[in-house]
Write a structure and sequence with these properties.
The complex is a heterodimer of chains A (about 375) and B (about 550).
Chain A: H1 47-52, E1 69-70, H2 101-124, H3 133-161, H4 168-198, H5 206-213, H6 218-228, H7 233-260, H8 269-295, H9 301-325, H10 340-357
Helix pairs in contact in A: 2-4, 3-4, 3-5, 3-6, 3-7, 4-8, 6-7, 6-9, 7-8, 7-9, 7-10
Chain B: H1 3-13, H2 48-71, H3 80-92, H4 94-110, H5 114-144, H6 154-160, H7 162-175, H8 179-209, H9 214-223, H10 226-241, H11 247-275, H12 287-304, H13 316-327, H14 331-341, H15 355-364, H16 368-381, E1 418-422, E2 425-429, H17 432-441, E3 445-446, E4 449-450, E5 456-457, H18 472-479, H19 506-509, H20 517-523, H21 526-538
Antiparallel strand pairs in B: 1-2, 3-4
Helix pairs in contact in B: 2-5, 2-9, 3-5, 3-6, 3-11, 4-5, 4-7, 4-8, 5-9, 5-10, 6-7, 7-8, 7-11, 8-9, 8-10, 8-11, 8-12, 11-13, 11-14, 11-17, 12-13, 14-16
The chains are: A mainly alpha (about 375), B mainly alpha (about 550).
Bound molecules: fe (ii) ion (2 copies).
One fe (ii) ion binds near residues 404 and 409 of chain B.
Chain lengths: ~375, ~550
């Protein structure tokens, strides 16, 4: 039997026809349907610009009362002197990847799905069974060690730096960069976990020992730790994405792991490392855009180039040394498909072409 | 993933961090808190691999709803009274969201616990999501709602409006000063854990009642990320509590954060809910009733009170006084009246109140009519240009208020106003606690200890100072709150768009002098000032 409780009347708001729709009436501004406080890069503003530009305000733009809180020993907000570089208009920077909420989740989810599927297929197909002991150890030790570099940079260079840039466009691009790094680091860690469950004698804790104390990795760890220690956010970004990534990151991911894995019977690792490489290419695009803007600045070009050159001179030798210390791992796998010198010169070529774009010089030590 | 493999995965991810031995991360942001003695607390865990697809799915639902709303002509049923306040609300809120993202490295700097670092980094991405998804909602409103003016200049208007500065505290407070005060106590322990309930739960309910079901879709989606953030904050709070030396700082920060959140959030959200709605069913909860449930019961009684077992002194007095201001001192109503008085310098329109509104207010807040009824009748009477000036410049028995130097909401509960000379200037404060915030809390020493990392109050804190002795028409032109015909104002004290003669233009407000109460106060002799303050406090400010 159904009984109805009439003691308590449920009440709902009544819908009402209001005709508050665009175009219902014509009056001043009734057609003003674009954000009109910034100049879009192209003719029409993109969604990315609409949801990003001026969300972080600026006293040089509309912020008329100024920042209302400050640090005890300095101004609040986003001081432009948190980097030594200067710009006549920081707000001109737009992320060429046009990253905002929707692209962040869409791209990263696609990567996640791709990796999950590859790993599942690999397990089903017994893809790890053909690995030689030498290759297994290579993955265990060196691919394993690399996860730390990605995570450390993600957390302590990129997450940290996205508090410091003078515009929302810069900080958001850096935040997205950090998400890539941390996702990739975790992917490497979880891959390591998978391998431990699939391959007998795979030591899933070895990556920590290698990262902490294997002599070939210590200079890399030293550079990574020093990158996290940089105070100037633009230096941290430049030294990491332009110098370290070119000379160490790309060297290891593209010119070593990607080249040799297949020849050692490993078709899985390259798909994973490839996602990191893809992320990096994406992140390099915004980084280039930013530093191209700064080296081409009408007023500050010379000073900016001078400072960037200092950073190149400071970081390139350190990264070069770290790269060279890694050299022994080129000869560890059974199938030695590439020589260190070939990998190195490919990496240096890439680095050179980026430096040329910024009109910067390669430090003398590297010329050999 | 199975439960077992999930916990293995979490375990594995903790292996990523290491103790550096060559160099340690730059300490860009300092704190006076200490964490050396703290046991490491684990917040809720999140793996990127499951995080991204989970959020993508949430997004798909939001964007599906957006398409549906447009196809279903939602704006034919949306109340303009409600939508106009969204021009203010949605101008403010994306900045606090993005500020929360920017605050995360401050907390990471301050708290030595890699487990928490991971949670905070994920929160950073969430907050980028929140900020841009809200900007996108606003863009949709601009494109589809009848009056885009005010939405179209949103980030500019917010940055130069008096109301933007009030809202900006809820954002700047996350990213400036002591890293723990800002990124933990203010942002998470108070703003996210307590006040997002009114923002992201109570307000969407009211939006739906006014025909807007997109705001609820977006904000509930935002709110669903909040439990992880609350867990981050709670873990840090427990770590801070492990060191006796932190106790006094925590108590200071809880007082500051609670009171500022109350002043700012209750002013804004209270006004949107009580004055932005057309839903006057008597069984619809008032803001006060919602507050009692979400803030007093759910937050104060269930979250704050249990912290007493750690020996922490909870600001009971401030919680009770906030409640007292909301129910007995008509805080929200005074704020709404102030917004409406100041309509010419807003970038949205404010609908007059009707008899039906009056009746509802009187039912929910007995005594309302005697304090505010005749003023709103005058507002209604003076709503069109031609025969009169804007209500603020007509004599309706309303004295324009001083602004609180700390919370930047005016000193509307007039008998509570505090006036003190601080840093060489006479300043007005809405309350004793706001005076304490400026004079005691935000200083380089606190109760005899050094607090070199604590923030400072800065900026041109009284907005009117910028326009002292300007012509009102010039103020509007400087603000650019003018429509695309070059003369009609964006703000209007009514919703009638059908007849251009009813719309105020620059000409209608030219020749009206604008003044700064604070500059005027500082120009007074001691005697004049004493008299002025006594009269201000005693003035019931009621329209005869
Ligand atoms: Fe948020
Ligand atoms: Fe105040």
């Amino acid at each position: 039997m159904v009984t109805q409780d009439t003691s308590k009347q449920r009440s709902f708001p009544k819908p009402e026809f209001t005709d508050a729709e665009a175009g219902a009436v014509t009056f001043p501004s009734s057609e003003s349907r674009s954000f009109n406080y910034f100049s879009p890069k192209k003719k029409r503003a993109t969604i990315y610009e609409d949801v990003t530009v001026d969300v972080q305000p600026d006293t040089d733009r509309y912020l008329s009362q100024g920042w209302i809180y400050a640090f005890q020993n300095g101004p609040g907000g986003y001081p432009v002197d948190w980097t030594g570089l200067k710009s006549t208009d920081w707000h001109r920077f737009r992320d060429p990847n046009e990253e905002w909420e929707k692209t962040i989740y869409h791209n990263n989810s696609n990567v996640v799905r791709q990796i999950q599927q590859n790993l599942e297929n690999a397990k089903k197909a017994g893809a790890y069974s053909g690995w030689s002991r030498g290759w297994t150890q290579f993955v265990e030790r060196h691919v394993g060690a690399w996860m730390h570099a990605e995570n450390g940079l993600g957390m302590h260079v990129f997450v940290a730096a996205q508090r410091s840039g003078p515009t929302n466009m810069i900080n958001t691009a850096i935040a997205v960069n950090s998400a890539h790094k941390m996702r990739f680091a975790q992917d490497l860690a979880l891959y390591n976990l998978d391998l431990g469950e699939s391959i007998e004698n795979f030591d899933g804790s070895m990556h920590r020992d290698v990262w902490h104390s294997d002599p070939v990795w210590q200079p890399v760890r030293e550079v990574v730790e020093n990158l996290t220690a940089v105070e100037d956010w633009a230096e941290a970004l430049f030294a990491t994405n332009i110098v370290f990534e070119s000379l160490v990151g790309v060297l290891f991911r593209s010119y070593l792991v990607m080249q040799i894995a297949a020849r050692n019977g490993d078709y899985v690792t390259p798909t994973l490392i490839g996602t990191g490489e893809n992320d990096y290419e994406r992140d390099l695009r915004y980084t280039r855009e930013l530093f191209t803007m700064l080296t081409g600045d009408l007023e500050h070009s010379t000073a900016n180039k001078r400072l960037l050159q200092e950073w190149v001179n400071k970081w390139a030798p350190r990264c070069s040394r770290a790269a060279h210390e890694l050299q022994p791992i080129w000869s560890q796998p059974q199938e030695k498909v590439v020589m260190f010198n070939d990998s190195w010169s490919a990496a240096v070529d890439g680095f050179r072409s980026v430096l040329a774009e910024f009109d910067l010089e390669e430090p003398k030590e590297m010329a050999k | 993933m199975s439960r077992q493999s999930l916990s293995k995965a979490h375990q594995k991810i903790t292996e990523l961090s290491w103790e550096p031995s060559f160099a340690t991360p730059a300490q860009r942001f300092g704190t006076d808190y200490k964490f050396e003695k703290s046991p490491k607390k684990d917040p809720l865990k999140q793996i990127m691999r499951s995080y991204f697809p989970m959020e993508e799915e949430k997004d798909d639902r939001v964007y599906g709803a957006m398409d549906g709303a447009i196809r279903g002509n939602m704006f034919r049923q949306v109340q303009e009274r409600w939508m106009e306040w969204q021009k203010l609300f949605l101008s403010i809120i994306p900045f606090p969201e993005i500020s929360a993202a920017r605050a995360m490295p401050m907390a990471i700097d301050a708290v030595p616990n890699p487990e928490i670092h991971n949670g905070l980094a994920v929160q950073m991405i969430d907050e980028v999501r929140h900020s841009t998804i809200q900007m996108n909602l606003k863009r949709l409103y601009m494109n589809h709602y009848i009056d885009p003016a005010g939405f179209d200049m949103t980030e500019q208007a917010w940055a130069n409006s008096y109301s933007g500065t009030i809202g900006r505290q809820f954002g700047e407070s996350f990213i400036t000063g002591d890293a723990v005060t800002a990124a933990n106590v203010y942002l998470t322990v108070v703003a996210e854990t307590a006040f997002t309930n009114t923002l992201f739960v109570a307000m969407p309910g009211e939006a739906a009642a006014n025909g807007d079901y997109l705001l609820p879709t977006v904000f509930h989606s935002v709110q669903s990320d909040e439990s992880r953030h609350i867990s981050n904050g709670y873990s840090i709070l427990l770590m801070a509590l492990a060191d006796e030396d932190n106790r006094k700082l925590l108590e200071r920060d809880l007082r500051h954060a609670w009171w500022n959140n109350h002043c700012v959030v209750d002013a804004a959200i209270g006004t949107f809910i009580e004055y932005g709605t057309k839903d006057r069913r008597k069984d619809r909860d008032s803001y006060a009733e919602m507050w009692r449930r979400w803030i007093y019961d759910d937050y104060y009684r269930s979250y704050l009170l249990p912290l007493e077992k750690y020996g922490l002194e909870i600001p009971h007095d401030l919680v009770e006084e906030s409640w007292n201001r909301i129910v007995n001192k008509f805080y929200v109503h005074r704020v709404a009246q102030f917004f409406a008085t100041g309509w010419p310098v807003n970038f949205w329109r404010i609908d007059p109140m009707t008899d039906e509104d009056f009746e509802w207010f009187e039912e929910k807040y007995p005594g309302w009519y005697n304090q505010f009824g005749r003023w709103w009748e005058a507002y209604n009477r003076l709503r069109y240009p031609g025969r009169n000036k804007p209500i603020a410049f007509e004599d309706v028995g309303y004295e324009y208020p001083h602004r609180c130097w700390s919370c930047m909401v005016p000193c509307l509960i007039r008998e509570d106003m505090v006036v003190e000379k601080v840093d060489g200037r006479w300043k007005t404060y809405c309350s004793e606690t706001c005076y304490w915030t400026d004079a005691v809390a935000f200083r380089p020493t606190y109760e005899g200890r050094e607090t070199p990392n604590m923030g400072r109050l800065t900026g041109t804190r009284e907005w009117e100072t910028l326009y002292h002795n300007w012509d009102l028409a010039d103020v509007l032109q400087d603000l650019q709150y003018v429509r695309d015909d070059g003369k009609t104002l964006i703000p209007q004290p009514h919703l009638d768009l059908d007849d251009e003669k009813k719309l105020w233009t620059l000409d209608d407000i030219r020749g009206i002098p604008f003044a700064s109460p604070n500059i005027t106060l500082n120009e007074m002799s001691d005697e004049e000032r004493e008299q002025h303050i006594a009269a201000y406090r005693a003035n019931p400010n009621v329209t005869p």
